[in-house]
Amino acid sequence: MKKIILLLIVVSTLTSCFDLDDNLYNQSKVDRYRLDDYDGDTDFHLDLSYRIPDSLIHIFTLASQGNDESSATTIYAIYIGSISRIATDTVIMYCHGNKDHMDGYWTRAELLANTKSKNRFGVMMIDYRGYGMSEGEPSENGLYADADAALKWLKEKGLSDSRLVMYGYSMGTAPATKLTAENFSMKPSKLMLEAPFASAETMIQDGSGLDLPGEFMTSLSINNGEEIKSVSQPFFWIHGEADDFLNIDTHGQVVYDNYSGTYSEAHRIPGADHNSIETTMGFQEYMDAVGDFMTLH
């Protein structure tokens, strides 16, 4: 009886403090985007040589509407590059993580915009609903609708499927994988995942230490480990071996092993945790790995 009572106390505690539906979306609001002038928390800083000219930074809004919504939600987006060249450029759709808004991920987008040469590739980034200056409340379906709103805009500007590459980091691996695997507004030509999680259920299992079904504590159905099985496009996977947030073996490796498409490459980074792949590798080595995949596969 004591063991049962103790288990009920533990479960009650977990369901209140580890409710994945709430903890997955650590949205924060801002009144404007500061980008290079942002003085909040970021994973790393870049020197002036990485700066993007103001003329190639475009901040604007998109109307995002899911299939189950009666009206559109206004979300904010940033495009790095020349909008007039979207019809001929290769574009990376960057889906950021859960802990911050676009200011917090700006340096990561800048690195991608410096890959191979400055502005060799266009980079698209959005703030999901509820993040940054975007309206609404975050949700799983909202993630997919918001990322797809960006693809619709890119398609309207002339981007073709063959020049679209999806890149997802952490929580952003869910929309990146989903939109690559299934039929949305565009069919990306490549998929890149950094520190992906296998599923919402695995996050529950790892976080709780209890053998409980994931649906006991969350209604999320995100499952990158299953979704990746429907991806046939070339696949780039990178994960830190010291990741103590999303364990590389129970999360990232599962996603990589379940891929059975045309081409894949794995980058296990010794000593890197969830947020430090770029700094552990070194910026140039990281950009070389990304750029080689972009141009050779």
Give the low-confidence spans.
Answer: 1-21, 208-217
Number of strands: 8
How confident overall, as mean pLDDT?
88
Q: Biggest β-sheet: count, sense, barrel?
A: 8 strands, mixed
Q: Would you tell me the structural class of the helices and strands?
A: alpha/beta
**Might you state the CATH topology name?**
Rossmann fold
- How many domain modules? 1
Distinct helical segment count: 10
- Which architecture name does CATH use? 3-Layer(aba) Sandwich
Strand order of the largest sheet: 1-2-4-3-5-6-7-8
Shape: globular
Summary keywords:
8-stranded mixed sheet; globular; disordered N terminus; 297 residues; 8 strands; Rossmann fold; alpha/beta; 10 helices; single chain
Structure description:
The structure is a single chain. Helices cover about 35% and strands about 15% of the residues. It contains 10 helices and 8 strands. The chain has helices spanning about 1-15, 20-25, 100-115, 140-155, 175-180, 200-210, 225, 250-260, 275-280, 285-295; strands at about 55-65, 75-80, 90-95, 120-125, 165-170, 190-195, 235-240, 265-270. Strands 1-2-4-3-5-6-7-8 form an 8-stranded mixed beta sheet, sandwiched between helices. α3 links the parallel β3 and β4. α4 crosses α5. It is globular, with a radius of gyration of 19 Å.
